[in-house]
Request: fold
Amino acid sequence: MATMVTFHAHPDDECIACGGVMRKAYEEGHRVVLVVATRGEVGEVPDGFLADDEELWERRVKETHAAADILGAARVEFLGYVDSGMMGEPTNDAPGTFWTADVEEAAGRLAAILREENAEVLTVYDDHGTYGHPDHIQVHRVGMRAAELAGTPRVFQATINRDHVRRGREEAMRQAGEQPSEDADVPDLGEDFGTAEADLTTAVDVSRYVTYKRQAMRAHASQISEESFFLALPDEPFARAFGTEWFIHVGAPPGIAESDLFA
Reply:
């Protein structure tokens, strides 16, 4: 069996983007290692949620370990950078943020883990971080360079299938008695959201593992409330939305031809 290292920007990203492939790999006997660039210091939390003298990052680290247990990760590592916040926020340029990190230095930290684990598979994000978050873009840059340094043979860029989201929106409109237009697009999302289906290479059916994804999301209670989009969805729409995880296999030609991250 092989080892998969899955690299993410903040606590909770892992269960949303790769929770299914993590649990799938675990159940198939592979070793799963979760690496997180930051501890999510600038996330928002309701008043009174944290215990007295508890810092948000402390809670989010605990939540990450809880979610990792659900998803089958054997090891969890934080690279030690600070959450940069959303693009354009003053926090982007604060000392120690992942966004301002030297790519070569950060890649060296990740490459050391890849070498130690003799990782066969690495997941990162696409080149625009799925939706333009600075730390997600940096995950792409750092992860791609780390794979070069460590010689990791199979690298997959996790993303969202833009066309799948569009089709889901159109179906929801039809069920609501509305008629989607021919040029219907994803609402309230920029042009850099996700990746066109034609540019994807890999679609992994994780429908068997969506209950674990949902449990892992619930473990991140400081950021994903019961009223959130993720947890408020009924089971069937949740399975449709999150039952497939999408990737770009680095070096493979475009066109979905793969259904697994392991050769």
